[in-house]
Specification:
The complex is a heterodimer of chains A (314) and B (325). With 314 residues, chain A is α/β, with parallel strands linked by helices. Chain A is 34% helix and 21% strand. Chain A has helices at residues 65-72, 107-114, 146-156, 161-175, 190-201, 220-235, 247-253, 271-286, 290-302, and strands at 38-52, 78-92, 96-100, 122-127, 132-134, 208-212, 239-243, 256-261, 264-269. In chain B, helix 4 (95-115) packs across helix 8 and helix 5 packs antiparallel against helix 12. Chain B has two domains: 1-54, no CATH class; 61-321, no CATH class. The chains are: A alpha/beta (314), B mainly alpha (325). At the A-B interface, strand 1, strand 2, strand 4, helix 3 and strand 9 of A face helix 1, strand 1, strand 2, strand 3 and helix 3 of B.
Chain lengths: 314, 325
């Protein structure tokens, strides 16, 4: 493997020539005849933000005429922020995938891209269905009351008024807002808004549900309801992508965990395995052992094998 | 089977060289067949890619129109409830929907009809100016709101997937609904304020004028929404443009009284808003029916701007999800 430091430097770096069979590889030796059924395919997704930066000496600057023009106008220079680099993942129907990583590691960017709320600078996402995403920022139309927001949200997802009438009572029950249902949404607490948004997002029984720390503002009752609803979606040949900083939630819910750091996938695999290592990494960081934490992360990343499309049929 | 793709699929020796260009539906990496193999032997697995659709991709124009039709319930509900709550923060509430246009028109009667008693040689100058302002500001209101529809709809855009053209359409439906109150006030004022006009069956011609104006506004909103989204500075220029437009549409004067220059008069004549004002005034004040030439000019403007706006909006469909930072 390359030197630990250079591991994340160049996304286009050449890959090791010889694939190493890994211990615990259940399928080694025989090609799989049975086709797996993907729900989401994330194909080589990269995202580069350009942001203004006031302290941009050692950052990746945008050069050329644009920089000169901004200087002339007295505006701060813009720098590139590589939020995601070459992410390739395949998520199967029925999977419950957790995404973990530090703040700013690119998890939410990836969720936004999968949900189609943002376009990657490179690559594309494929899915069986329009993914429904539920984020932390859940306000719909603040001036409208809760029941009107439910109706508007359902119609925005392409339901007809008749279909909305059918599921409306059920959604009201899921949201469990009581009399607050008829208040304008700007009067809602963040947890109440999350309840309403969750009810709307799951109204169409989406095949792909993305939860970006959506349950974190809810109370225990709502979290239990939310988890039950997610299991239901999973049973209906769907998949759930779940971002959380609560490792106990991840351990309890997820069948597979992806660890993202600095825009790269570090690990992808069994929940216990990945979460244990992530815990160790965070422990090292918390103790201030930055160098050994980095070395440990790069060691984990060195064992990760990204997907490659071969094309054609078996 | 429980696939852990990090485990199962081994890195291929064929290094990826598909950087740069964005993959489209046509060149999916697995486009060779309905089944695709991922990973190198021996850990390779096959997957069924036939159900997969690109996320956030722009559909063909006709499919786009069909999906916009599918969003009609959303459009109408959005326009209706937002109009209904638009005055909820006031004491009088919905009364303002009617009161606003009446007070608006009444000020012109006060200034021009009672105070100045000027008519600049125009018959029924008060009616002339009431119609001018009420019809003109319908377009500027819709234009400004439509052009900002993407920014104002960010919550919905981030929350749900629907054809984004539903947003400028919903705003135009809402503006059209509120314009109905304005039109009612306009009719009432023209009938009541001296010199009062007599109502006739030909007043019904205001309806097609209003509809054509609505289509024109809608197209204008779709044309400028992607521009304002890309370059926010355009929003500041729009105020200048609408003011310039106001003075060149003959709101409170008849251009032929100020100039004989044929070029300038022709420019006035080609201005769709000038024509809308003239046609409405002709019908309501002077009992003259719009000429065939006026109708066709308005139809060409409305249809042309609508088509241009639709194409411009549709071409930028994928960009509306991008956050501005």
């Amino acid at each position: 493997m390359n030197a630990a430091d250079s591991l994340f430097e160049d996304p286009k770096a050449s890959t090791p020539e010889t694939p190493r069979p890994r211990p615990g590889d259940r399928h080694s030796g025989q090609p799989q005849a049975a086709a797996i059924r993907p729900a989401v395919v994330i194909d080589d997704v990269s995202m580069v933000y350009t942001v203004t930066s006031t302290g941009s000496e050692e950052e990746d600057q945008v050069h050329g005429a644009r920089r000169l023009a901004r200087r002339a106008l007295g505006r701060p220079p813009i720098v590139k922020n590589h939020a995601l680099t070459g992410v390739r993942l395949l998520i199967e129907q029925g999977e419950f995938v957790g995404f973990i990583g530090r703040n700013g590691s690119g998890k939410s960017t990836l969720m936004n891209i999968v949900a189609g709320q943002m376009n990657p600078t490179n690559g594309r996402v494929w899915a069986v269905d329009r993914p429904a995403k539920l984020g932390v920022n859940v306000a719909l139309v603040p001036a409208l009351s809760g029941d009107r927001n439910i109706r508007l949200g359902c119609l925005a997802q392409g339901m007809t008024p008749g279909e909305v009438d059918e599921v409306f009572d059920e959604l009201v029950e899921i949201a469990a807002l009581g009399k607050a249902l008829y208040w304008p949404m700007k009067a809602y607490s963040s947890g109440m808004a999350a309840r309403l948004r969750f009810a709307v997002a799951t109204a169409t029984n989406p095949h792909v549900l993305i939860l970006d720390e959506a349950l974190s503002t809810g109370d225990a009752q709502f979290q239990a309801r939310g988890q039950a609803r997610m299991q239901e979606i999973r049973k209906n040949a769907g998949c759930v992508m779940f971002v959380s900083h609560s490792m106990s939630e991840i351990r309890n819910l997820c069948t597979r965990v992806v660890w993202i750091d600095d825009g790269h996938v570090v690990m992808d695999g069994d929940t216990k395995d990945v979460v244990d290592r992530y815990d160790k990494y965070m422990g090292l960081l918390a103790d201030g052992n930055l160098l050994s934490a980095r070395a440990f992360r790069d060691e984990c990343a060195g064992q990760y094998r990204p997907l490659a499309w071969m094309g054609g049929s078996l | 089977m429980s696939a852990r793709h990090g485990d199962e699929s081994e890195r291929t020796t064929r290094s990826s060289s598909r950087g740069g260009s964005r993959s489209t539906a046509q060149d999916a990496p697995w486009s060779a067949g309905p089944q695709t193999v991922i990973g190198d032997a021996p850990g390779r697995v096959a997957f069924d890619s036939s159900d997969l659709k690109p996320v956030g991709a722009r559909p063909p124009l006709l499919d786009y129109l069909v999906s916009l039709w599918g969003a009609r319930h959303f459009v109408i509900y959005d326009a209706r409830v937002r109009l209904a709550v638009s005055q909820d923060h006031t004491v009088l509430g919905k009364v303002w929907l009617v009161l606003n246009p009446i007070l608006f028109g009444f000020t012109f009667y006060l200034i021009f009809g009672l105070l100045l008693q000027t008519n600049r040689g125009i018959e029924n100058f008060t009616g002339f100016i009431i119609i001018g302002f009420m019809m003109f500001f319908y377009t500027t209101r819709s234009f400004v709101a439509g052009a900002r529809s993407i920014a104002n709809g960010q919550n919905l855009i981030r929350g749900f997937s629907f054809p984004r053209a539903a947003l400028p359409l919903a705003i135009n439906v809402r503006q059209a609904l509120s314009q109905l109150y304005v039109l009612a006030a306009m009719f009432a004022l023209v009938l009541v304020v001296p010199p009062s006009e007599r109502v006739g069956l030909h007043w019904l011609l205001v309806i097609p004028i209003f509809l054509l104006q609505t289509v024109f506004n809608w197209g204008l909103g779709m044309l400028f929404a992607p521009l304002v989204h890309k370059i926010p500075d355009v929003g500041n220029i729009m105020a200048v443009v609408t003011r310039l437009w106001m003075y060149s549409s003959g709101l409170f004067y008849e251009p032929s009284r100020f100039t004989d220059n044929a070029t300038i008069l022709a420019l006035f004549h080609l201005n769709p808003l000038y024509q809308i004002l003239q046609m409405t005034r002709g019908v309501m004040l002077y009992d003259t029916l719009p000429s065939m030439e006026q109708w066709s000019l308005l139809v060409v403007w409305a249809g042309g701007v609508w088509l241009l706006g639709l194409i411009a909006f549709w071409r930028n469909e994928e960009s509306y999800a991008n956050e501005r930072r």
